[in-house]
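Lab notebook, bench 4. Still working through the backlog of constructs that have no structural model yet. Next entry is a single chain of 136 residues. Request: give me the structure tokens for it.
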Amino acid sequence: MKQFFYKGRFIFIPLAFAACISAISLVVMQLWNHLLPDILHVTTITFWQAMGIFILCKILFGFGGKGGPGNAPWARRRMMERCKNMSPEEREKFRTELENRMCGWGKRPFGRRDSKFDDRFNTERNSQRQDDAPTV
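Model written out:
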């Protein structure tokens, strides 16, 4: 079975790709033809026009990966190597600097206030201000 798939992959993979594109284009065409003529008063489209719209959207809006430079595997590996060589103090300094740049984003759940976060954030800010204040 493994040897059959190994030999047949050059035929199977392009056929599977074409089948996926065709299925998605059919779904795009059906959704367009059933929804948009009544809502926006546009004309119906053909299968090939739906495929063109789908491909155009993929080119313009991306191909659905996680995206962003920080999610690339080589960038993740490089960051892990840098962190591995850091001392615990350097790692903590890096983490706090990253949190300062992100303004605490991701610490607070969406849609509600987290009083623990606000208290910790305010105490950290006050301690930083006191450290930065000139001594008399």
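Notes after review: The CA atoms of residues 87 and 93 lie 10 Å apart. Residues 70-110 form one domain. Flag for follow-up if needed.
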